[in-house]
Amino acid sequence: MRTRLTLFALSLALPAVLHAQVGTDSTWDVTQPRGRTREIDFTTTEGTWTAIDVSPDGRWIVFDLLGHIYRMPASGGEAQALTQGSGIAVNVQPRIAPDGRTIAFVSDRKGQMNIWLMNADGSNPRPVLLSDKVQHRFPTWVDSGRFLVAVAIPASGTRSFVMLHPDGGQGVEVLKGEVGSNPFRVSGSPDGRYLYYDAYTSRTPGLYGRDDAMMGAVQVRRLDLQTGVVRPITAGEEGKGNAEHGASGGGYAAEASPDGKLVSYMRKVPGGTLEYKGQRFGPRSALWIRDLTGGAERLAMDPVEMDLSEESIVVNGTYPAYRWTPDGKTIVIHQGGKIRRLDVASGRIETIPFTARVHRVVSERPAPKTKLSDGAVDVRFVRWATRSPDGRTLAFQAIGRVWVQELPNGTPRRLTSEAFAPLEFQPAWSPDGRSIAFTSWQDEHRGALWVVPAQGGTPRRLTRE
Known about the structure:
Helix content is about 0%, strand content about 45%. The strands form 9 sheets. A 6-stranded mixed β-sheet has the order 1-28-5-4-3-2, with no helix packed on it. A 4-stranded antiparallel β-sheet has the order 6-7-8-9, with no helix packed on it. The protein is elongated, with a radius of gyration of 29 Å.
C-alpha cells in the first residue's frame, strides 16, 4: 500500500498552503473561566495517563498532568509548569523537536484540540493550525524537525495523518484511513523516515461496542515516508482467511529505538490480570521489544498501565506517549501513576521521582438551563395497556408509573400512592378484576413483583429478590 505523497513531494506542496490557516473569532477567549469558579491548588507526586518525552540530549523530560505540560530534569525533581498561563485550556501530548528548542503539543485554547508549538522554556506559544471542525492529536516530528505529522479526527470518525509545516498552514494528507485500517496514535522514528502507528482493523464503526485487542483488532504498522509503503509490524486477526486461524494478540503504542533497529510496543497478556482495591480485572498489558532485523522479540516490562486499546470512542489513544532515551539503553514510560525508567538490557525498573504543583481554576460547565413544568404532562408513549376482565377499566404504564382509567373517557389516576418510590412496569389484572400485579425496579433494591387492589392502595411485595 502506498500513500499519496512522499516527503519530497510534500516539500514542494506545503509552501502553497502555509497561509491557508482557518480564521477564528478573536472576540471570545475560551481560556477565560466564566460563571461560578473555584480554584484547586495542591502538590502531587504521581499522575494519570501521563504522556512523556525525553529531550534529544537526554538531560530533561516533559510530561502532561491534569491539562498542563511540565518540564523537569531527567533524573527527577521539581517539575515546572510550562503552560500555566493558558487559563482553563487543556494542554497535552508534548513532543520535543529534534533540536531541543521547540515543543509541539495539543491544546484546545482556541476552542478545539489543535497542534501548537512553544519554546522549550514554555515561552512564545503559537498555533500550527486552527480548525474548529477537525481535532488534531499526537504530534510527531519528521524530516529532522522540518515537518510535523499529526492525527486528524473529523466528525465522521475516519481518521487520517496530515503533515504540517511548523510555520502554519492546513497541511497535506499523507495517509487516509478506511474501514478495516483506521489509523491512530502515531509516532515517528528518530531518523524521521518512518511513522509507526496503531491500525484499527474492525469492520464496524465500533462507536458503542468494543474492539477486542486479543483478537487482533489493533495492529502496529509502519509507513515509509520516502516510498509510501506501509508494512505490518504485527499481524494476525481471529478468523481472517482461515476459520481455525487464531489471533496474534495484536499490538499497539509503538516507539522506535534511536538507531531504528528495535521497536517497542504493547500487547495484551492472555489470561493475565491485575488487582486493584480488591477487584481483579484484565487482561493486563505488557511492553515488548522487537528486533526489526531478525524479527526476534522479547517481553520487556510486565505489567504496564492498563491501556485503552478497547476504547469505545477512540480519543486518547491506546497508551500515553513514552520515549527511548537518546543512548538507546532505557525507556522512560508512565506506569502505576509514576514515571519509570526501564533498563532495556536488564529489565530493571527505576522510578523517576517528581513533585508538581497543580494550580487550576475550574470554570462552571456551560449547559442550557431548562425548567420542567410541574403541570400536567401530555403522555406520548403508553405501554402495557390492558383491560380489566369486565372491560370497564384500563391499566397502563406511562412515565414510570402504572395508571388506571375508566373507559371510555375517564381521567387517569395513579394506581399506587405518591410515597411508592420504585419505577413501575407491566400491569396485569387478576382474573376476578379485584387486583393488579406489576413489576418494579429500583437501583438500590433492584427488581420485585407486587400486587395492589385495583382501586388503589398500598402495594404488597410478593418476591424477596
